[in-house]
Amino acid sequence: MTETPHLVLVDGSGFIFRAFHALPPMTSPEGVPVNAVYGFTTMLARLLKDHVGTHLAVLFDASRQTFRSEIYPQYKAHRPEPPEDLRPQFSLIREATQAFNVPGIELPGWEADDLIASYATAIRAQGGTCTIVSSDKDLMQLVGDGVCMLDPIKQTPVGPAEVETKFGVPPTKVVDVQALMGDPTDNVPGVPGIGPKTAAALVQEYGTLEAVLNAAPEMKKSKRRDMLIEHAEAARVSLQLVTLATDVPLPVPVEELGTREPDMLVLADWLDRMGFRSILSRMGLGHPSGAHAHRAARKVAAASVAGATTPADDASAPDASVLSAPYHNYETVRTAEALQKWVSAAQEAGICAVDTETDGLDPLAANIVGFSIATAPGKACYVPLKHEGTLEAPTGEQLAVDAALKLLAPLLQDDAVLKIFHNAKFDLLILDHAGSPLSSITAVDDTMLISYSQSAGLHGQGMDELSALHLNHTPITYDSVTGTGRNRLPFAQVPVATATKYAAEDADVTLRLWHVLHPTLRTNKALALYEQIERPLSAILADMEKAGIAVDRAELDRLSKDFEARMQGMENDIYEAAGRQFNIASPKQLGEILFDEMGLKGGKRGKAGAWSTDSSVLQDLADQGHDLPARILAWRQLAKLKSTYTDALLRQAGRNDRVHTSFQMAITSTGRLSSTDPNLQNIPVRTEEGTRIRQAFIAPPGKKLISADYSQIELRLLADVANIPALREAFQLGQDIHARTASEVFNIPLEGMDALTRRRAKAINFGIIYGISAFGLGKQLGIPAGEARTYIDAYFARYPGIRDYMERMREEARTHGYVLTPFGRRCYVPGIHEKSAARRQYAERQAINAPLQGGAADIIKRAMVHLPLALQKAGFGETRMLLQVHDELLFETDESEAEAVAAIIKNVMEAAADLAVPLVVETGIGQNWAEAH
Description:
Elements: E1 6-11, H1 12-22, H2 35-50, E2 55-59, H3 67-71, H4 87-99, E3 104-105, H5 112-125, E4 129-133, E5 147-150, E6 157-158, H6 160-167, H7 174-181, H8 196-206, H9 209-215, H10 223-230, H11 232-242, H12 264-274, H13 277-282, E7 331-332, H14 336-349, E8 351-358, E9 368-376, E10 379-384, H15 401-413, E11 418-421, H16 424-434, E12 444-446, H17 447-455, H18 463-471, H19 478-482, H20 496-523, H21 527-547, E13 549-550, H22 553-578, H23 587-597, H24 615-623, H25 627-652, E14 658-659, E15 662-664, E16 674-676, H26 688-695, E17 703-710, H27 713-721, H28 725-733, H29 737-746, H30 755-769, H31 774-781, H32 785-798, H33 800-816, E18 818-820, E19 826-828, H34 837-873, E20 880-885, E21 888-894, H35 898-910, E22 921-926, H36 929-932
Parallel strand pairs: 1-2, 1-4, 2-3, 4-5, 7-10, 8-11, 11-12
Antiparallel strand pairs: 5-6, 8-9, 9-10, 13-14, 15-16, 17-21, 17-22, 18-19, 20-21
Subunit structure: Single-chain monomer with multiple functions.
Domain 3'-5' exonuclease: 330-522
GO molecular function: 3'-5' exonuclease activity; 5'-3' exonuclease activity; DNA binding; DNA-directed DNA polymerase activity
């Protein structure tokens, strides 16, 4: 051989189950299930294109009985039989290797992993190299000189560094760690009570399994020491089970595995017979003109719902028959053995849905009552943990929380198994509170965010709504299970049989939603948005919610009392202006005084006949010069600040004097985050009261708060997307953008510009972003609407590109029903075709603003995803990101590191997007939020 031999070994058996459960069910034109075949074929076609070595083979398991069964009869004995829909696909996958002219190798009595180990050893002995296409952790012991792995799903390499990150030891020590910790998936016993971290620490300290066992009698007395002594032989047996054989007789010599070109006619005919049109197209093979032209019609579930785009390949779309699996016959799991079977089945499948049931809605305080797992449509279970039961409906046996989570941990921590949640942030915080740390849960998908990434503003993202929309199924409601009002039962008192039907269905629906919605991420061009922004942000926000922010109780108490006193003073003035006392908080009484007794004009009655006194009505009256409405507005503002912030924050501060807001990820139509309990987005920015409230958010002793705020980000995006040379130049030169606008629009020199002219330009700049009318601008500036119209006309005359942008967004919304942010996020505008002119014009203003507001949201989210790693790499891993409020991020860090940390934050945020104008971030450091801001 003239070149160094490079053998590529594909773990066929390992990939089959992952493909089967990761892809939506589909059938060939003959009606045979082929989703695993499709996944395997796609992977093989890509491998031949991108990762071809000089030699290639696919390895399969021949049977379940191997030499390991003789050493330990319980090895893999608990694994369930393959699903019915998978069994006919095994032979088709072997056909696939033949069609691609790739050797498919198996050997009775040996696992595919042993064949892989032996071939890798053989090629290395010949001076060659080997790439193992697999994500199986059991094969990581082979990684080293000349041998690496490639994850077939993620297309990421696995070398010694990645192995050490996963196991805590180099590849040569992996088997020692595995032998100590055991593996419930394969029934490898290990040593009870020894988990991954402990096993790695022991091997690091003593070197090998045998050295650990020999040292155990001399260790300090503990339960761990006793377990090591008592289960030493089990650990030694485990070492034999996990160590791969490297001397298996090779069924086909390495020399005969040289890569060969497939017969394209044979391959094309086979792909056509399977119905894999997209693979035919990608490989440039077209359709054979043979007998398979009469293809069965596609059966795609939910393809017509909400205008969803259908995947291009017949066989790659979810088949309606699969989604019709019944929503019942769920299992109640009451024992460790039963739960272990479900965990093993999920690990075997490589995918599952998980859902938690709790005794409350605050994930930082609620207790887990049970959890459910689904491994396939229609296959789900519920694990009750803390149900109370009654004499009429006793709970029966149930696992303790700690015991159940210990059994669940290997599944949660297995990055080769995709765990699907709906609103993952909530469930991850519940599991964290119960004892499964946030940082240990890997490989998570979220159907709520998958849907939101491609349908923001189109509909709600709740599981029940999505189920009705995409699955044509109405799930059991929480109210029907617990009751309503005073008769509502805590979930812990719901009979377990009823709880099983409800909770297991939630996991089942979540899994089915994933099968329907995940493929559309690519077709709707939302895959990058989801995978690079929304999904990783979920765990970051969970950390932020868990951290909370410190508050000064004494300052909040002083504020509350001050607001109360001021409100009382306002009330006397209000009574005087009204001519009598009344209940100021009563809209009905206020309406009677304003419109019946005082005879003010402009009142409107609601459907019930009462006068409307909302803020817009009062503001209109106040603008006309009426005193009482203005006083009511001031009183309401202070009352809202008192109830929403000073009083509420005192209640929510908890034992550690920290407030934990909850970030809502899928509410707005633009991608912006919102916060609740408390809502920190509505604290007034430029008022004395707002400043005083921010002063109550503090840094603990020895810490500082850092505020980092994007400067005029939406105007910068407008200059970028509308391509306005003058605005771009102003931002690039660092000029005062409002003064520059005034100079351009009103033809006034920059030097010596008066404040009033600049203020008018500022009002236009920001008003344009929100589609302001001449009436609105005139009202804001205190000038006639006609004069305001001349300002707007002059603005558009100077910047015609902005008018073009606005019309382009209106047309885009009318055509598609949505507009796109500069980063590809869809923002739906449902009211764009309203018959009512007022509603339609409001929707048009939404269409104009959404790409700018949504673009700003995309940018700050990008920064939030990048910041934790950047701070960690710089040695500031203890710095905590606490809050996100509009275009601002707030951090808590050590006082001595604040300046250096602020510089890193500024750099990362300013590099979050590449625009035609610079992003500018203003940072501040202080002992409280107001001081930092």
